Amino acid sequence: MRLERASGILLHPTSLPNGVPDHHAYRFVDWLHAAGQRWWQVLPLGPTDHTGSPYMSPSVFAGSPELVADPTSLVTPGERDAFRAANAYWIGDWLAYGGDLDQQIRFEREWRSLRAYAAARGIRIVGDIPIYAGWDGADQRAHPELFLRDAIAGVPPDAFSATGQLWKNPLYDWAALRLDGYRWWTERLRRAFRLVDLARIDHFRGFVSYWAVPAGSETAANGRWRRGPGASVFHAAEAKLGPLDVVAEDLGVITEPVRRLRMELGFPGMVVLQFVVGGGPDSPHLPHNHVEQSVAYTGTHDNDTAAGWWATLPDSERATTGLRGDDPAWELLELTWSSVAALAIAPVQDVLGLGSEGRMNTPGTEVGNWSWRLEPDALTAGLAARLRALGERTGRVA
Fold first, then answer.
1. What is the per-residue pLDDT across 246-303, written as a single tens digit (0 to 9) for each?
2. Whether residue 302 lies in the annotated active site
3. Is 202 annotated as catalytic?
4. CB 307 within 8 A of CB 346
5. Average pLDDT over residues 107-136
6. Sign of the CA dihedral with 95 first, then 98, 100, and 105 last
7. Distance CA 16, CA 110 (A)
8. Which residues neighbour 376 within 8 Å (Cβ) at sequence distance 6 or greater?
9. Which entry of 22, 49, 158, 202 is annotated as an active-site residue?
10. E strands of 27-81, at which residues?
11. Cα–Cα distance between 162 and 185 in angstroms, integer?
12. 3-state SS class at 145
């Protein structure tokens, strides 16, 4: 899809006041509409692991039972027959793993209702597709032939971690996936687009080459790059599903082949305004290097909040950002909204000006993440008016 100039807010449903998409989710949609926003971005909607991470899910297809607002609502026999038929590729694997059919139906019912409510107010959903499945989850158990056993996923040392990030997800056997025309990935994408309007594919660079760490390693430092499948996965999916409404998460160690693949596929990429420091004049995150078909963020779920980021910046680096520092979160928001990038998105914590206490995730750690909650009355009419005014000044409100 070609992105139109607009803006949106990142807020995962677990960060709503009650931790589920209940009436507070509908209030949030109303606030987005009042604020002139046209996109609501969420993190992966699947079941989480023991740390609460949605990026190590035991199923890449199932909806999280923890996101069901009414877990005792009636499910009819007809709903069960229809859901099984519509989700025949994966539902049996999830039930064999111990999943609950009725909770999947409730999740789907509630999410579709919320999405329809948002659509009626001109708001679409940006979803998130983790590149990898969880270790020993329903997917790996049902299709062991599609995964490697001698190596696990991670990324090499980078700005987030001196020893890299050891994700511990199973890696794909891309040769095996290719044998049946990448059907597993096609079905993943089909499922995603039943739930969202636009999907961010996490760690897009892994389709060009990926960091493989020997199984049993304690850090990701001793991994090595292996070659990925390139465009073939997406061409196979497009042949079945039509054009793919995808944003490529192209952050981190990005090489020219990764850029070429994204451009070949026509997927918008990402820039993050917190990365304006330390990257040199050619950094794609600097506003003068932004391109129109991209998504600009103040920060992502892996970053500190804008205010927290500013608080830890040395004075020498603050001077290179172009921000005054009187209200750093809102100044970074204004810089992001002023970008030539078609879509601008900020975590709701940055709209609220929260410090590091509002951080969602610290990469490379397993404790203290994914638990932040929005205060019930934090998003005021005055804040909506301020955000709408910014969108009007920067051409992001239709």
1. 999 999 778 999 999 999 999 999 999 999 998 888 899 999 999 999 999 999 999 9
2. yes
3. yes
4. no
5. 97
6. negative
7. 15
8. 17, 24
9. 202
10. 39-41
11. 32
12. helix
Closest CA to 24 of 363, 373, 397: 373
Name the DSSP class of 3: P
Find how far residue 397's CA is from the centre of its chain: 23
CB-based contact 309:266 (threshold 8 Å): no
Q: Of 249, 250, 331, 350, which is the active-site residue?
A: 249
Query: Which residue, among 152, 132, 302, 172, has the nearest Cα to 222 in the 3D structure?
Result: 152
List 238, 302, 327, 334, catalytic entry = 302
Kindly report the length of the chain: 398
Decide if 387 contacts 36 (C-beta within 8 A): yes
Of the candidates 68, 27, 62, the residue with the CA atom closest to the CA atom of residue 47: 62
d(CA 170, CA 149): 7
Range 142-177 burial, b when 16+ CB lie within 10 A, else e: beeebbbeebbbbbbebeebeebbbbbbbbbbbeeb
* Pairing status of strand 269-272 against strand 294-297: parallel
Catalytic annotation on 139?
no
The CA distance from 91 to 196, in Å, is 19
Q: Phi/psi of residue 71, each to 5°?
A: -75, 0
Reduce the DSSP state of residue 351 to 3 states and report it.
helix
- Confidence band (pLDDT; 50, 70, 90) for 160? low
**pTM of the predicted model, to two decimals?**
0.96
CA 193/CA 198 separation, integer angstroms = 7
CA angle (85, 90, 93) in 5-degree steps: 120
